[in-house]
Amino acid sequence: MLTELATEILIPAAAAVGIGFAAVQWLLVSRVRLSPERAGAAGGGKNGRDDYLPIEEEEGLNDHNLVLKCAEIQSAISEGATSFLFTEYQYVGIFMVAFAVLIFLFLGSVEGFSTKTQPCTYSKDKYCKPALANAIFSTVSFLLGAITSVVSGFLGMKIATYANARTTLEARKGVGKAFITAFRSGAVMGFLLAANGLLVLYIAINLFKLYYGDDWEGLFESITGYGLGGSSMALFGRVGGGIYTKAADVGADLVGKVERNIPEDDPRNPAVIADNVGDNVGDIAGMGSDLFGSYAESSCAALVVASISSFGVDHDLTAMLYPLLISSVGIIVCLITTLFATDLFEIKSVKEIEPALKRQLIISTALMTVGIALVSWLALPYKFTIFNFGAQKKVTNWQLFFCVAIGLWAGLVIGFVTEYFTSNAYSPVQDVADSCRTGAATNVIFGLALGYKSVIIPIFAIAVSIFVSFSLAAMYGIAVAALGMLSTIATGLAIDAYGPISDNAGGIAEMAGMSHRIRERTDALDAAGNTTAAIGKVLYKVGGGSVHGSIDGKGFAIGSAALVSLALFGAFVSRAQISTVDVLTPKVFIGLIVGAMLPYWFSAMTMKSVGSAALKMVEEVRRQFNSIPGLIEGTAKPDYATCVKISTDASIKEMIPPGALNSFRGPCRLSSLRSADCYLCIQHGGAWDNAKKYIEAGASEHARSLGPKGSDPHKAAVIGDTIGDPLKDTSGPSLNILIKLMAVESLVFAPFFAAHGGLLFKIF
Predict the structure, then answer these.
(1) Which residue ranges does UniProt annotate as crossing the membrane (predicted)?
(2) Under 8 Å CB-to-CB from 110, ≥6 apart: which residues?
């Protein structure tokens, strides 16, 4: 029912709406001024800055020194984050160019760099474009994906550092004002990434089509480089940013909290600026690149399978672009959902923050289900066929709707299970906190046990999603199920970015010397964001932190990673014309066990990297406390720049070996089943993090019996948190990318493997 013209208008129009909405949100955030003469300026509207505020909420509105301090701290954080990313991108740029050359050489060599047309793989009576063309266009799409991934991460970082101090200043007027500022800032990143990813992919398809014409098999095969580029850059962003943020975090906590008994984000701590910079380069820039990679790969996997199904054979453009239509509807759905948080409901108290964020996930999922049904009905023929290991499987549009919907709802289920195991509102994390009574050892034991237990339900949820979607629509069903899980990515990213922005806001409040009441408000924002953050980390992978990290982008990312990896593997075997895989064959079995080993090797490298960088940070922080007279008394200023430099240098140096490991691949497909490892890492870290926050908050009699800050149980909880930090923010998220990356590399290089597969075995 949806014409080709309507499809070609709808997709870019949805992307334009997303970019426009992001611009509007940014303008609203920019009305909060970082200059004394404009502090507390009018804003107007229900949630603006004109509203009547009780006197007790107007804390420090006329204190110009506070505004200047906030602006100064924000500038330092922004400069540190920008400097790190520019340094990182110089190294990443070298890799990008080198890998692009490899793609061209490997794919071009398939037919000896011939410029002659060749029989199509699946339609032998037709002729397709030469292998050299595939090499050129795959290289171009790789560069497009890589650049878009880098831009997504960088824009996210700039938005977050722009908004952190503004959130702090708004907290003087009440928690509701600060919430809206932080959430709108997160929405800017979410909508920019979703819209840009969709728009660049759509433009690339249309430009490539000018050359490929009716050769859709070659067209969409070359587009797979887009996903490879996105994930390749995301791996470096996640590893480098994760090492940076955790080195600073561990150094600040171990010396500041445990040894010196000073509060978190205390300006006397030399590592405090580096810690806040790390939130932006790891949790913002890294996550942005990561989720862009997931989106690009799931779209590419679906397009490749569709191109050799009836959609591609019959040149049905509307049905062919079904994955992009889902993403387009997702942007509109997320826009409507965002209004519920920023305009339709006003936050009046701390206890309303977390329900408001959870409501975002539930509303977006419910509305997206309706949107998927409409797209499936309007864009797809009632009956069609999907390529299924050499055969064509008959499928109906309602079956494809169920595939997308089950991925969407499975993600939500995984996210809320993650919340149960990582939120300090429930017994699992409270038990971990209680174990701190007897020291750090029992805390670590309880946390490990909780992490192992937490993977059970999510793995079954993923398994059910795979079984149902494959039964209904073969590998294409799995690909669109992954896309369904990522269809509300704009909302998921908004929530995910909201957490680090609020965390930075709390740090700025502490460093600027604002009242304890302001810090309580920013801590409440951070805690709620971290809870909702973990759902996302499992929904867009599988896990996260508490109320500090229970529902964010990590969960969505891991869950979708399992589905995306399997979908990419399906596209790979389809392209390589593999109908069966005999695991009893020695070569295949070797590939399986090597693939199973890679996540452990990679985790060992990233964990050791964080440990090495943290060691240098701890030594520097200790040195400053011991050698700078008056530092602990607050009469002297620490040397923040040295700590920032240590984190930057260490993370750049240490990210190279894990990043280079991605080139060690081959027929190692079992690695796509290692999502449990990612989930496990994140759950460990999230539970320990929230156990610490549970004790610090002292919100219940049980929590107060374990505190206060500085008590032996609290110190044990801090040690557990520092152990979990590299698990949940470095190894776990990076493993997610590694898993997808090995799968998409196999797909991109499928023609080369088909022509020259088993080179190692041939050599030896």
Answers:
(1) 6-29, 91-110, 130-157, 178-205, 320-341, 361-379, 399-422, 443-468, 474-495, 556-578, 584-602
(2) 131, 134, 135, 751, 752, 754, 755, 756
Encode 293-322: b = buried (16+ Cβ within 10 Å), e = exposed.
bbbbbbbbbbbbbbbbbbbbbeebbbbbbb
Q: What are phi and psi of 23, to 5 degrees?
A: -65, -40
Question: Under DSSP, is residue 580 helix (H, G, I), strand (E, B) or coil?
Answer: coil
Cα separation, 186 vs 530, in Å, equals: 13
Burial of 45-56, coded b for 16+ CB within 10 Å and e otherwise, reads eebebebebeee
Mapped onto helix, strand or coil, the DSSP state of residue 711 is: coil
The pLDDT tens digits of the residues spanning 254-267 come to 888 888 888 878 88
- From the list 420, 423, 374, the residue with the least C-alpha distance to 400 is 374
The answer to whether 62 touches 55, Cβ cutoff 8 Å, is no
- pLDDT tens for 65-112 read 888 889 999 999 999 999 999 998 988 899 899 999 999 998 888 877
pLDDT at 63: 66
What length does the chain have? 764
Looking at this protein, which amino acid is placed at residue 686? Answer: G
Structure confidence at residue 54 (pLDDT) = 37
SS3 category, 546: helix
Three-state SS across 305-352? HHHCCHHHHCCCHHHHCHHHHHHHHHHHHHHHHHHHHHHHCCCCCHHH
Return the ∠ at Cα 354 (arms to 341 and 509), rounded to 5°.
90
Residue listed under structure tokens 């890294």: 286
Which distant-in-sequence residues (6+ apart) come within 8 Å of 756 by Cβ?
109, 110
Please state at what angle helix 131-170 crosses helix 216-223, rounded to 10 degrees: 40
Whether pLDDT at 441 is above 70 = yes
Give the count of beta carbons closer than 10 Å to the beta carbon of residue 398: 13
Instruction: At 209, list the tokens.
Output: 């089509």
Is residue 624 within 8 Å of 270, Cβ to Cβ? yes
Q: Which residues share a beta bridge with 386?
A: 393
Q: Confidence band (pLDDT; 50, 70, 90) for 669?
A: very low
358 in Cβ contact with 551 (< 8 Å): yes
Structure tokens at 501: 């922005």
Burial bucket for residue 391 (CB in 10 Å: 0-12, 13-18, 19+): exposed
CA angle, corner 101, sides to 111 and 215, nearest 5? 45
| Exposed / middle / buried, residue 559 (Cβ in 10 Å: 0-12, 13-18, 19+) | buried
The model's pLDDT over 602-660, given as tens digits with 9 standing for 90+, comes to 888 888 888 888 899 999 999 999 999 999 988 899 999 999 999 988 888 888 777 66
Measured CA angle at 144 (ends 752, 201), to 5 deg: 95
H or E segment and range at residue 395: strand 391-396
What's the whole-model pTM score?
0.85
Partners of 546 in beta bridges: 549
Q: Which helix (H) or strand (E) holds 385?
A: strand 383-388
